[in-house]
Write a structure and sequence with these properties.
Elements lengths: L19 H8 L7 H13 L3 H21 L4 E5 L9 H8 L4 E6 L2 H12 L5 E5 L5 H5 L2 H6 L7 E5 L11 H10 L6 E8 L5 H11 L11 H6 L4 E10 L7 H6 L2 E2 L2 E7 L4 E8 L3 E2 L3 H10 L2
Parallel strand pairs: 1-2, 1-4, 2-3, 4-5, 5-9
Antiparallel strand pairs: 6-8, 7-10, 8-9
Bound molecules: S-adenosylmethionine.
The site of S-adenosylmethionine has 21 residues, from helix 1 and helix 3.
Length: about 300
Amino acid sequence: MIDNHTTSPPAGVNPSTPSIARVYDYLLGGRDNFAVDRQLAEQVLKVAPNARTTAQANRSFLVRATEAVVRAGIGQFIDLGIGIPTSPNVHEVAQRINPDARVAYVDNDPIVLVHARALLSRIRSDVITLKGGLRDPKEILDRPKLRAHIDFAQPTAFLLVAVLHLLTNEDRPERLMEAIRDRMAPGSYLILSHLWDDPDGVARAGAGEYAHHKASASVVPRTRGQIQLFFDGFELVEPGLVFLDQWRPTQSMINAGAVVDLAGVVVDRVEAVEVLIQQVIAQLLVAAMNFRLVVDAEEAE
Ligand SMILES: C[S@@+](CC[C@H](N)C(=O)[O-])C[C@H]1O[C@@H](n2cnc3c(N)ncnc32)[C@H](O)[C@@H]1O
């Protein structure tokens, strides 16, 4: 585990400001975080006790959704907001099914880039890592290095997993969606998860802790209606809006059936471009309550 007192941080890494990527790493049981990150994560867990299972379920969704789009024939991926590498990473999942799959990883956090370059892109030519911010989507999506690696004339999967809620309304997240849509060849996919503004205010309480601790980005839970606005021009595909663990669960997940705490959506663009949307619900639910809570989620604005 990195610690302020024992290890010098990599260049550009600020150990006194909590980083979204490092807090997430801590929640996932990783070791690449500082005391400030762990303190914030523990505060978040006090007000949103399901934050850890939510993070784990989010990773599990990322794996299942990536597998689904590779099986649908996608061979190139742009992972926007990747987090500190956590195995299996997108290229590992994709290449189990299609060994020729190519991946571009993008993030703006120096510690993510240090680890991603060391672990992912330095040792292989089918993976690149780019420093880039999602507030200026055209800059990153049109960067020559990205264009040399990913052919936008071919179907591509874009991943915005647990990252869109890190853009405030002032950051104009709809511009990012538009930039992605404009670059999608027919048959492309978007895999997305988003923190849900649950009626009990659990997600908002967690977001308040990030603000209080002056984390590297704001956390903005959104209602179902607000999230759906991002997907104008797309059409839902199966299984539609469901709790995250219900998004094409594996047999073992169905059999386990104990705790379900996230929800998901699958969307299909009218012009045959498919989108997978995942909505994160910040509540700890039991399987028996799923149906009622799905209905509640659908009734939420
Ligand atoms: C919660 S992590 C999610 C990681 C991964 N997508 C997953 O779901 O497991 C969010 C990541 O997005 C990155 N991020 C946040 N805001 C960003 C921005 N404006 N531009 C680029 N990356 C950003 C953070 O550095 C972090 O690595």
